[in-house]
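$ ./design --mode recover --in tokens.txt
reading tokens...
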């Protein structure tokens, strides 16, 4: 049984940029939390890359830390 591909590998995205907010928001829930690995269907490496991009975007004030 083969595992389904995640969004990043299916669309051949090698790097998640912190300035690409449309892509990052796909993996955030309405409260602004990063969705889990199983729900987002990403590999461990892609999940770490996404988390780093979200944290950088929050630090640069492109994303809120929590949704108001």
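writing sequence...
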């Amino acid at each position: 049984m083969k595992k389904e591909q995640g969004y990043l590998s299916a669309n051949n995205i090698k790097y998640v940029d912190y300035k690409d907010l449309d892509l990052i928001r796909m993996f955030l829930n309405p409260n602004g939390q990063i969705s889990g690995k199983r729900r987002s269907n990403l590999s461990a490496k892609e999940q770490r890359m996404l988390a780093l991009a979200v944290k950088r975007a929050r630090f640069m004030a492109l994303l809120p830390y929590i949704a108001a």
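exit 0
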